[in-house]
Amino acid sequence: MRRTVFNEDHEAFRDTIRAFIEAEVVPVYDEWFAAGQAPRDFYYKLGELGIFGINVPEEFGGAGLDTHKFEAVLYEETSRAGVQFGGSGVHVLLALPYIKLLATDEQKKRYLTKFVTGEEMWALAMTEPGTGSDVAGMKTTAKLSEDGTHYVLNGAKTFITGGVHADRVIVCARTSAPREDDRRFGISLFAVDTKSEGYSVGRKLDKLGLRTSDTAELAFVDVKVPVEDLLGEENKGFYYLGQNLPSERWGIAFGAYAQAKAAVRFAQQYVTDRTVFGKTVSSFQNTKFELAACQAEVDAAEAVADRALEALDAGELTAAEAASAKLFCTEVAHRVIDRCLQLHGGYGYMNEYPIARLYADNRVNRIYGGTSEVMKSIIAKSMGL
């Protein structure tokens, strides 16, 4: 089947990204892996390359496009090379939609110019210790000052990807108590300057995978947030968060498919080069059958991921469709990457081989952005069950 989701512009972008990865990322990636994060100056390079500005209006220094297809190319090319671009995915996929959707003209002028260049890196802080997927149960508060000039932010967040290097963080906090009939009411979003007094970054968390993206705990002690940094209307934060979930879940789905595709490539290269009992591992029937089965699953996941991408770009991707794509693609990636690691034998367990890192990186796909169990619940509800 001929793939139709990308055009010549996307393929030219792919060539640029592939060359950039080979020149700027691959030679130093082991250092990033050991350090547990990409260096801060790397994000300036991504800014210079134009990656942060693709979907930003031209008046703020961006390309003015409205598509996720260039992000899709990034997923494929980073996975193909067995690398990650640190926490930059959060900057573009998670933070930018909220700025575009909620920011006033004045806020966009302040935020987006620095966003495009990488001068200000953004993150999103929803999850709290003890709440997990129960966003409505958050305890972080933001109380309006008596003079009405600022909010006073208190609380803590955890699992915040990009949290170490972030210059601004979209923090979800309670500005009002939940209603008896609506516990989701009362949450607001704030674009918090990380240099604010009382704002602190706690531990950089030691993760199983995604080792080059900085994930941190954050704490807020009487942080003064100017009213000019409230995003959208007070108490509607939960509604805003729900609006962006389909694109976030598409990103996880497409990233998982790209990882599965890369795993087949890594395994095919390995079994073609590796000799056992005087024959290449690729010559055994079991190897052929395993890789053929993996390729069939990758083909199916590609079709699902591409269909979700087209629907997302058309503004038609529903919550249930996004959940279905995420569930299917992440479960496929789990199976495929595990089988491809098995074909590497003992070497597949060594971090010097990309398949080992891919195995660890992939595991979180069935957890963040909503667990597989949550995805099943959303799909079942859409079926009327």
TrEMBL record:
Tell me which residues make up the Acyl-CoA dehydrogenase/oxidase N-terminal domain. Answer: 7-119
- What does this protein need as cofactor? FAD
Q: Which UniProt keywords apply?
A: FAD, Flavoprotein, Oxidoreductase
Pfam families given for it?
Acyl-CoA_dh_1, Acyl-CoA_dh_M, Acyl-CoA_dh_N
Asked if the keyword Transmembrane belongs to this entry, the reply reads no
Q: Where is the Acyl-CoA dehydrogenase/oxidase C-terminal domain?
A: 235-383
What positions does the domain Acyl-CoA oxidase/dehydrogenase middle occupy? 123-223
Tell me where the transmembrane regions lie: none
Please give the family membership noted in the entry.
Belongs to the acyl-CoA dehydrogenase family.
PANTHER family given for it? ACYL-COA DEHYDROGENASE, ISOVALERYL-COA DEHYDROGENASE, MITOCHONDRIAL-RELATED
Kindly provide the name given to this protein in its UniProt entry.
Acyl-CoA dehydrogenase family protein
